[in-house]
Design goal:
By secondary structure, the chain is α/β, with parallel strands linked by helices. It is 47% helix and 13% strand. A 7-stranded mixed β-sheet has the order 3-2-1-4-5-6-7, sandwiched between helices. Helix 1 runs parallel beside helix 6.
Length: 283
C-alpha cells in the first residue's frame, strides 16, 4: 500500500513533467516563430536589395547616356567661341596636372590656344621684387606694384621684356606674353603665415596687371578643391568656375573667357551652373 510521501513525490513528478513539457513546447514553438520571422525578413530584404540594384543600374544607364549626350553637344556649344584667342594658365602657389588637362579639354573646338602654363612660386622667394638686392624686405605696397608689372607683362603683346625674375616662376612653359585671356588657379595656403600679407599684396597687383586693357581673367578650381578659393576670386570681382573638371564647368569656363561674368559651378558660392545665353548668370 502506497504511503503519503510516495503519493506526494508522484504528484511532484507529474507536475515537473508537465512543466518541462510546457517549457519545451514553448521553446519549440518560439523557434518555429523565429524561424518563420527570419525567413520573412530575409525575403523582404532580398526583394529590397534586388529593387535597389535595379534602380542603381537604371541610374547608371541614365548618367552614362547623359554624359554621351553632353560630349556630343559640347563641340557644338563652344565651337569657335574663342577663335584666335591666346589663353594663359597661371597657378598661384601650385597647379595640379588634372586642372591643366581640364583647361586644355575645355578649349578644344573653341578656336583658342593655350599658349602658356606657368606657376608662380609662393611664398615669394627672398629678394624678389623691383630692383636688385634690396637692403630690406619690400613693403606690401612695393610688392603690389611689382605684381602689377608682372601681370601687365604677361598680357602685353610683342616681345616679353625681362621683368619676370626666373626665381619667381616655379615652372613655366610656352610664351609668357601676349595673353588675350587668362585662367588663374589659386592653391590653398596658410593665410596666417608671416609672409602671407606680402604674398596677398603681390597677388592683388598681379590681378590688376593681368586685367590691363580689359583682359578677361577667370578663376578656376575643381569639385574636390579644399578649401575652396572661389571666395577670393569673388572678392576680386573675377568670374569663376568651381567645377572645371566637369563638362558643364568646362563649358562655363569657355563662356566666362568669352566675357560672361559671374560665379559658376556646383558649390554654395556659385550663382548658376553655366551662364545663360545672354552671357550672365542664369536665373
Amino acid at each position: 500500500m502506497f504511503d503519503f510521501r510516495y503519493h506526494a513525490l508522484s504528484l511532484v513528478a507529474v507536475f515537473l513533467a508537465l512543466m518541462i513539457g510546457l517549457l519545451l513546447g514553448v521553446a519549440i514553438g518560439d523557434r518555429g516563430l523565429v524561424s518563420s520571422a527570419e525567413r520573412n525578413v530575409r525575403e523582404s530584404l532580398r526583394t529590397d536589395v534586388q529593387a535597389a540594384q535595379a534602380q542603381s543600374a537604371e541610374l547608371r544607364r541614365e548618367v552614362a547616356q547623359r554624359k554621351r549626350v553632353e560630349q556630343q553637344l559640347y563641340p557644338l556649344l563652344v565651337e569657335g567661341r574663342l577663335a584666335g584667342q591666346r589663353i594663359g594658365l597661371i597657378g598661384l602657389g601650385g597647379l595640379p596636372d588634372a586642372t591643366i588637362r581640364s583647361v586644355r579639354d575645355a578649349l578644344q573646338e573653341t578656336g583658342a590656344r593655350l599658349t602658356a602654363v606657368t606657376v608662380i612660386r609662393e611664398p615669394l622667394p627672398a629678394g624678389v621684387g623691383p630692383g636688385s638686392s634690396p637692403p630690406a624686405p619690400p613693403s606690401n605696397a612695393t610688392l603690389r606694384r611689382f605684381g602689377a608689372q608682372v601681370g601687365s607683362t604677361l598680357v602685353r603683346p610683342g616681345k616679353a621684356p625681362r621683368r619676370i625674375p626666373r626665381s619667381l616662376l616655379q615652372s613655366s612653359s610656352g610664351q609668357l606674353n601676349g595673353m588675350t585671356a587668362v585662367v588663374v588657379y589659386r592653391a590653398a595656403r596658410d593665410e596666417a603665415k608671416p609672409e602671407s600679407p606680402g604674398t596677398r599684396a603681390f597677388e592683388l597687383g598681379l590681378i590688376d596687371g593681368l586685367s590691363t586693357g580689359g583682359t578677361q581673367v577667370v578663376g578656376v578650381e575643381t569639385t574636390t578643391t579644399k578649401p575652396s578659393q572661389i571666395g577670393w576670386f569673388n572678392d576680386r570681382r573675377l568670374p569663376s568656375v568651381d567645377n572645371v573638371d566637369d563638362l558643364p564647368g568646362q563649358a562655363a569656363l569657355v563662356f566666362a573667357l568669352a566675357g560672361a561674368n559671374g560665379a559658376y559651378g556646383t558649390k554654395d558660392t556659385a550663382q548658376a551652373l553655366v551662364p545663360n545665353a545672354a552671357g550672365g548668370p542664369s536665373p
